[in-house]
Design goal:
Blueprint lengths: L11 H9 L9 E5 L4 H12 L3 E8 L6 H14 L3 E6 L8 H12 L10 H14 L2 H5 L15 H11 L15 H17 L3 H23 L15 H15 L7 H11 L5 E4 L3 E6 L2 E6 L1
Parallel strand pairs: 1-2, 2-3
Antiparallel strand pairs: 4-5, 5-6
Helix pairs in contact: 2-7, 5-8, 5-9, 9-10, 10-11
Length: 300
């Protein structure tokens, strides 16, 4: 596998234009970047280096397909050619049900805290729709969690690929992204194109803007819910159901590493708070139970 070319130098106009729309920390900051080898994460790597950051590229190999080790070597070559450090780690995941969730959990277990990812505006739009379908309410429609770790949210998927093409970078196209068995894939390839046809316009900027507005609303709601401890059942006696739901949603999201619960799960936990149930299951393989006047959360 050849080292990705460094000469001729990257097109300054494209790098500068895209870089200005990214939300990177100040030059000289040490950052970790999750780099799968796809165009989005490869663009993240290049733009982070261009922004003057001290970059370490992290590649996680799930071993899901033949040749996955070659993808790690490609990432390493791309990073080293541009002066970035590289960490390649193995986190095997077997194919099967809930593959996306299990792979995500495996990555979270091995990636460093605060790692930057290459999520873009198209990913944001898909997440808003997916969370709507999950019934996760206003917090879910705020889109991808921890936006401070997603510096490319203002860029489009077509732009990250165009940057890689302009730089002559070899990238990996994950075949799982096109498989209809994954809900997110169907949202990307079926739902969003249909919405564009129905609306007569590109829905991605609208959904990305909605995520920003919903995020502002969530900030206000969090301020209210932050003063309420839903795990202290006795203290909830005089608190209205609406505020308890907000507090429960906040608590469950934190307990599930940022993954917001669906509305039905929140309602079932409210029943536990109110004493109408002793325990309940929460979507995502979690369980909440009440004992001695307190709620506890556990992963099953």
């Amino acid at each position: 596998m050849a080292v990705p070319p460094v000469d001729p130098p990257p097109p300054p106009d494209l790098l500068a234009t895209l870089g200005e729309r990214c939300a990177f920390p100040p030059p000289g900051t040490a950052v970790d970047c999750a780099v799968s080898g796809g165009p989005d994460s490869t663009a993240l790597l290049v733009l982070a280096i261009e922004a003057g950051l001290d970059v370490t590229a992290w590649h996680v190999d799930h071993g899901l397909r033949p040749g996955s080790a070659d993808e790690g070597r490609l990432v390493a070559l791309t990073a080293i050619a541009r002066g970035a450090a590289v960490m390649t780690v193995s986190a095997p995941v077997d194919d099967g049900p809930n593959l996306e969730e299990r792979a995500r959990d495996a990555r979270r277990a091995v990636l460093p805290p605060g790692v930057l990812t290459g999520h873009n505006a198209d990913d944001q739009a898909e997440t808003v729709l997916w969370n709507l379908l999950r019934g996760s309410g206003v917090p879910g429609t705020a889109g991808i969690g921890e936006p401070h770790r997603r510096p490319l949210l203002a860029l489009r998927r077509s732009e990250t690929r165009a940057l890689c093409d302009a730089l002559g970078l070899e990238v990996v196209d994950d075949p799982h992204n096109a498989e209809a068995r994954f809900t997110r894939s169907r949202i990307r390839h079926e739902v969003l194109p249909l919405l564009a046809d129905v609306a007569g316009r590109d829905p991605v900027p609208l959904l990305a803007r909605h995520a920003i507005l919903a995020g502002e609303a969530v900030g206000l709601l969090d301020a209210l819910a932050g003063g309420v401890d839903p795990t202290d059942v006795a203290s909830m006696a005089d608190v209205g159901d609406d505020l308890v739901r907000l507090a429960v949603r906040r608590w469950l999201t934190e307990a599930a590493d940022g993954l917001p619960p669906d509305a039905a799960s929140v309602d079932r936990v409210l029943d536990v708070v109110r004493g109408r149930a002793v325990a309940t299951e929460v979507v995502g393989g979690h369980r909440v139970r009440r004992s001695a006047g307190r709620l506890s959360h556990e992963r099953r």
